[in-house]
Design brief:
Bound molecules: NADP nicotinamide-adenine-dinucleotide phosphate, zinc ion
Number of strands: 16
Helix content: 25-40%
Distance between the termini: 28 Å
Structural class: alpha/beta
Shape: elongated
Number of helices: 13
Radius of gyration: 23 Å
Strand content: 15-25%
Largest sheet: 9 strands, mixed
Length: 373
């Protein structure tokens, strides 16, 4: 670690802005940006666009050419030191003659953390890190958590009335929130590796759970980088009710589906886009910890739970939620309507405290982002 000057802050902020351009397309890789600065002038910049393609540093070095010699590189994540699908960026920076590297954070993978920085130092490059680290981490919460714990970062999204209700007793729930909130949810889906829901939401709401590009409000470049890719749709269905509903909207939409079923029963083959995942059945339902481990193993960084009170409640009860995204609409659904979470708590000592980290208006609705603490 070392002290950073105001220019360092400014250049790193630019590297983070660049990284953010990969928000919807780098999965399962992290979003990373890089800026090369020489004599106070920007000489190169770039960001990681898609997995399997060049890392941010490679784009910035290509732009800088000869001017990289003696330059400072600002990167939002420690440069890699390993041969993956591309050669190590630490070596590329050394070869180009970069004299100083400033990283926002170390690589969160404990097996490789610090190795890129060491490789640079060994080659005589001056290295410091920890500048705007919190912001850098916030760009890649899922990648960081998966590297550290093998688990994805879990957001539970719910639309509720001002009286905290999510559906009528009959199951009817469309629509509680307005168009702006629904567009916001589309963007949230688009940045997620997987969208998890329960079979009741799939059948009652005829939820497709897909990203509809036209509704996301992404820039043309973001859309193009992302392409037609859909998040993995994960459906919890211990009794295999999906098998008798071939016409449901979920199955009519393109994109892979992970169909979670009770491992004590054999599951029939559905259409090719559906893969059955047998899970242990616990008293609450299918084992959600086992599911998240499997999603982590498959490279899922950010997981969005879009379900009703039952499944959302199970995730909360199991202590598997990182953030709640509640879209609150100016309406009342009355005391017979379904709660936010099926989660009976007996005493004040059992309450779950949250930290509200952001709250904003979306059309006539409000979006509340709360972290589970
Ligand atoms: N306001 C909103 O944001 C929102 C969002 C989505 C849905 N909804 C509404 O919510 C209602 C449906 O919600 P829901 O809570 O009844 O159903 P859900 O959350 O969609 O799915 C629950 C179903 O998932 C299966 N499941 C498997 N493992 C589970 C586990 N560990 N924990 C919980 N469930 C598990 C169970 O069916 P099996 O026992 O058959 O496996 C269970 O009945 C609908 O009325 C819908 O309109 C509202
Ligand atoms: Zn790299």
């Amino acid at each position: 670690m070392s002290d950073f000057n105001p220019q360092d802050h400014q250049w790193m902020a630019l590297a983070l802005q660049l990284a953010e351009q990969g928000l919807y397309s780098t999965d399962p890789n992290p979003r990373v940006g890089c800026v090369l600065v020489k004599d106070g002038q920007l000489v190169g910049q770039g960001f990681h666009e898609r997995a399997g393609e060049a890392h941010a540093e490679v784009h910035a070095l290509a732009m800088a050419g000869e001017q990289a010699k003696g330059a400072t590189a600002y990167v939002s994540l420690e440069p890699c030191a390993h041969f993956g699908r591309t050669p190590p960026c630490a070596d590329a920076l050394v070869k180009a003659g970069v004299s100083r590297v400033v990283s926002a954070m170390q690589d969160p993978n404990p097996l490789v953390a610090g190795k890129g920085h060491q490789r640079l130092r060994d080659a005589g490059v001056s290295v410091s890190y920890g500048l705007l680290a919190e912001q850098a981490r916030a760009l890649n919460p899922g990648f960081c958590k998966r590297m550290e714990q093998g688990l994805p970062y879990v957001r539970v999204k719910l639309a509720m009335s001002l009286d905290g209700r999510t559906a009528m007793a009959s199951g009817e729930s469309q629509w509680i929130t307005g168009a702006a909130a629904r567009t916001d949810v589309q963007r949230l889906r688009a940045r997620s590796s997987a969208v998890v829901s329960g079979i009741d939401t799939v059948l009652l709401d005829q939820a497709a759970l897909t990203v509809r590009m036209a509704e996301c409000g992404l820039t043309a470049e973001q859309q193009q980088r992302r392409g037609e890719r859909q998040p993995l749709r994960v459906i919890l269905d211990s009794r295999q009710r999906l098998a008798s509903q071939p016409q449901c909207r979920l199955l009519q939409q393109p994109g892979p589906i992970l169909w979670c079923v009770d491992d004590r029963n054999s599951s029939p083959n559905l259409v090719a886009q559906v893969e059955a995942l047998p899970l242990t059945r616990l008293p609450q339902g299918l084992d959600l910890t086992q599911l998240l481990r499997e999603l982590g193993r498959r490279g899922c960084n950010e997981v969005l739970v879009e379900a009703g009170a039952r499944l959302a409640g199970s995730f909360m009860r199991a202590g598997l939620v990182d953030e709640l995204w509640v879209y609150m609409a100016p309406t009342l659904l009355g005391s017979q309507a379904r709660p936010l979470l099926d989660w009976p708590l007996g005493s004040m000592s059992e309450q779950q405290r949250l930290q509200i980290v952001d709250m904003r208006a979306l059309g006539d609705d409000w979006r509340i982002r709360a972290k589970v603490i």
